[in-house]
Amino acid sequence: MKLVPALLLLLVAALFVAACGDDDDSSSVATETPNLFPSQAGPQQQPDPAQAVDATLAEPVDGVIEVTLAEILFSPNNLHVPLDDAVTIRLTNDDPATHTMRVAGIDGRYDTEDDAVVPMIGPGAVEELTFAGAAAGVYTFRCDLHPGSMGGVIVVD
Questions:
Q1: CA distance 54 to 76
Q2: Range of the domain at 10
Q3: CB of 77 within 8 A of CB of 60?
Q4: Which pTM value belongs to this model?
């Protein structure tokens, strides 16, 4: 007779553990769901820039920041854009290689629809990108053709 209450207790404990296991599975699915609508308060976590970032911010002069592409580097590569302003980033390619400039958007990822892109900057060419600082934060940029060596940040505040 003492065996029946012990079996009953064991059965109740097994059911409790199984029920808790189901709750854990559903909560892990919810935490793994990507955030499809990032907060507009600022950019999501950005990729690390491939290139060491300059110590000082490059400020716009008359609404323009001059950036040179030389020796497979952006110079300067720590750019400041005032919040709610549009700044022209003028890219001058002094390299014999072609480059691009891609700014990861507010979603914090490259190659998505919210990126700002200058697709091709040939040797000796000058191209421009207008970047509007609508949300404060740090945005990362890179050259798509040299993603392991060319990059930087745009600080919006």
A1: 7
A2: 1-33
A3: no
A4: 0.73
